[in-house]
Amino acid sequence: MKKLIAIFGIALCHVINAQTTLLVPSQYSTIQGAITASTNGDTILVADGAYFETNISLEGKEIVIISENGASNTIVD
Fold first, then answer.
1. Among 6, 27, 30, 68, fewest CB within 10 Å belongs to which?
2. What is the value of pTM for the model shown?
3. Residues 6+ apart with CB under 8 A from 43
4. Low-confidence stretches of the chain (pLDDT beneath 70)
């Protein structure tokens, strides 16, 4: 029984700390919307294009925001 509890505890930690990739604009229409929906450790993947947003705030979250095909293909204005 002790082994089962230990295995369950390890599995639960992995579920709690699971990282998610949020996609802009296919899942979230704005970068800020994806940031708001994110949790620490998540990645926001932004597709090519121009995004006109004001006052983007990371809201104190430890997240990664990356462009799908490089900074030269994604503009945040």
1. 6
2. 0.76
3. 19, 20, 21, 22, 63, 64, 65, 66
4. 1-18
